[in-house]
UniProtKB/TrEMBL annotation:
One biological process term in Gene Ontology: cell adhesion
UniProt entry keywords in alphabetical sequence: Cell adhesion, Lectin, Membrane, Signal, Transmembrane, Transmembrane helix
Superkingdom to which the source organism belongs: Eukaryota
This protein's record includes keyword Transcription: no
Lipid bilayer topology: Single-pass type I membrane protein
A Gene Ontology molecular function term of the record: carbohydrate binding
PANTHER family: SIALIC ACID BINDING IG LIKE LECTIN 6, SIALIC ACID BINDING IMMUNOGLOBULIN-LIKE LECTIN
Ranges for domain Ig-like: 27-122, 151-234, 241-338
Compartment annotation: Membrane
Name of the protein described by the UniProt record: Ig-like domain-containing protein
Species this protein is from: Moschus moschiferus
Cited Pfam families: Ig_3, V-set
Length: 427
């Protein structure tokens, strides 16, 4: 009879609230230790550290349960438990688990493949053979946010046309316990898939020059959460200069674009021209202009892609070459200018032609002109010219002014521009 009176006293312990028969007084509820607010990104994992009080007296195994807030522990399934054959809440099977040992009072909760549907409040319950106690007065809230981490894309650096190179996309921050993600690549360059691991993928590229600066994207999808992240890089493909071209400008308009070597381009004397050379290369090419064909140690007449010809005359007649060069190679393109002189007056009129050794001062509207391979007016009867006289002109940056043999039908004509005035000597 005394034993029967003792049982109600034991049942009146702290675990007796809403419980069945208990032979072990419950620990104080406030001694449950856990973080009450946890934030995790979707697709990743989260571990909630938790410790529960040790029962004073217990018989048999200790079972641990985690429930969503509002669950009826007698009827609704938990999200995680260590009790065998226990039905779990839909969508939590294989993702929610209890990695700790109840004998160590470890009630930690592990969640893999976190998704937005996991957001909410959870509470812990411990159960023995004769009792169970839910810790409803100390719950934790899980806040699931969008995945902001990005894949890592490792490139070998500069790629070369026609030479395969490997790029690796990885997610080292992913959870090893989670479902392996799905990798996909997007690139305009010719490519093939290489080896992969659960958390990395290799893409082999065989780039072309035109692939330089194009986008390459690695996309990673976490199948159980639906989270998708990606990273895009620009390909760096190095190659020698190609597609060198010359644009010829007259004033503010483009008169002509030269894409290949040109044997001869007629240009009216007195015009102002700007020659612009461009090239496709990586790294960018050094552009230089040369008179004639460039040779070793030849000084360029321009060290940029622009060559200004403010007044085209006989001195500008001939071949101009643009050279595009970078550490991987060089390419040249040449343009031959043929200066066309339109002499508007017959031979010997106006001031006439000076004698050998005399100085001819070009002034006003007088100008000596000639054209190679072009027939000029015949000298008038009685013109006194020494055999093969020549006119020597002023110095130019790239050499003396061309000379004009009298036998080549030189003449005096109108149309000189003031900047062309100067002393010419008949030699």
């Amino acid at each position: 009879m005394q034993l029967l009176l003792l049982l109600p006293v034991l049942w009146g312990g702290e675990w007796a609230e809403g419980l069945t028969l208990s032979l072990c007084p419950a620990p104080r509820a406030q001694r449950l230790e856990l973080r009450q607010n946890v934030t995790a990104q979707e697709g990743l994992c989260v571990l909630l550290p938790c410790t529960f009080p040790e029962p004073r007296v217990s018989f048999g195994k200790i079972y641990m349960f985690w429930f969503r807030e509002g669950a009826d522990t007698n009827r609704d399934p938990p999200v995680a438990t260590n009790k065998p054959k226990q039905k779990l809440r839909e969508g939590t099977q294989g993702r929610f688990s209890l990695p700790g040992e109840p004998q160590a009072r470890n009630c930690s909760l592990s969640i893999t493949d976190v998704n937005v549907g996991d957001s909410g409040t959870y509470f812990f319950q411990v159960e023995t053979r004769f009792s169970k106690f839910p810790y409803r007065n100390k719950m934790f809230f899980l806040n699931v946010t969008a995945l902001t981490r990005q894949p890592h894309v490792r490139s070998p650096g500069a790629l070369e046309p026609g030479r395969p190179g490997n790029l690796t996309c990885s997610v080292p921050w992913a959870c090893e316990r989670a479902t392996p993600p799905i990798f996909s690549w997007t690139s305009a360059a010719p490519s093939s898939l290489g080896p992969r691991t659960p958390f990395s993928s290799v893409l082999t590229l065989t780039p072309r020059p035109q692939d330089h600066g194009t986008r390459l994207t690695c996309q990673v999808k976490f199948p159980r959460s639906g989270a998708v992240v990606e990273r895009t890089i620009l390909l760096n493909v190095t190659y020698a200069p190609q597609h060198v071209a010359i644009s010829i400008f007259q004033g503010n308009r483009t008169a002509l674009k030269i894409l290949q070597n040109t044997s001869s381009l007629p240009v009216q004397e007195g015009q102002a021209l700007q020659l612009l050379c461009v090239a496709d290369s990586n790294p960018p090419a050094q552009l230089s202009w040369f008179w004639g064909s460039p040779a070793l140690e030849t000084t360029p007449i321009s060290s940029t892609g622009v060559l200004e010809l403010p007044l085209v005359g006989a001195a500008e007649e001939g071949e101009f070459t643009c050279q595009a060069q970078n550490p991987l190679g060089s390419q040249n393109i040449s343009l031959s200018l043929s200066v066309v002189c339109e002499c508007g007056v017959p031979w010997g009129q106006d001031d006439g032609v000076p004698g050998r050794g005399e100085q001819c001062l070009l002034r006003g509207q007088l100008q000596l002109c000639w054209a190679l391979g072009q027939q000029l007016p015949e000298p008038p009867p009685g013109a006194q010219l020494q055999p093969q006289p020549q006119l020597q002109g002023p110095e130019r940056p790239w050499g003396p002014e061309r000379v004009c043999p009298a036998a080549a039908r030189s003449g005096v004509c109108r149309g000189v521009i003031p900047e062309r005035r100067g002393a010419w000597i008949l030699i």
